[in-house]
Design brief:
The mean pLDDT is 88. The relative contact order is 0.16. A hairpin with an 8-residue loop joins strand 1 and strand 2. With 194 residues, the chain is mostly helical. It has a two-stranded antiparallel sheet with strand order 1-2. The chain has one domain: Up-down Bundle (Four Helix Bundle (Hemerythrin (Met), subunit A)). The longest helix is centred in the C-terminal third of the chain and has 25 residues. Helix 3 packs antiparallel against helix 6 and helix 3 runs parallel beside helix 8. Helices cover 58% and strands 3% of the residues. The protein has eight helices and two strands, in the order H-H-H-H-H-H-H-E-E-H. The N and C termini lie far apart (61 Å).
Length: 194
Amino acid sequence: MTQIRVLTLVGLLLPIAIGAQQPSVSAPQPPQNPITETVKGFGYYGGWLLAAFDSIPASQYGFRPKPTQQTVGYIAQHLEDANYGLCARFGGLMRQVTAKDSLADTIKARWPKDTLVARLRTSLIFCRDAIGTLTDARLAEELPAGKGPAGRQAPRARFVLLFLTDLAEHYSQVANYMRALGLVPPSALPRSGQ
């Protein structure tokens, strides 16, 4: 009877012992910069904005729901300018400025749709590159925040958050304009595979 117990015990323990000798699969390592990796994940707002502006007919770029609101074209040119300003600030990259960039916003807002969309796309690529320069440690670095000799400072993260919230705010604005025009915003379209 003792021999049966020993064999049973060996039969139970042998697989455990063999399994312990197998090389273990290491757990996935967390990203080195989890905060900036998360920021990179918000690029879908830029994609939605480009898809939205592509979807809106050129004939509707002068549309605004009420006279006090911005036109579609005005929002597009504003986003381009804001993207460059915020992303240059937090990314430390320089933008090539042309004579067209100094034109009044109301003039740029009436540029052809293709021009506005192309310029917005280029500004989003600039921002993608600016985000690519970030690390979690750099987000805490202090940058000048404001005008004048006061020397007010704010963490670099402030400008990243301003960029992301600006994209989200304007996407919401453009999505509402699209609904008013009878169009479906990109975020409301069925996703592939559904």
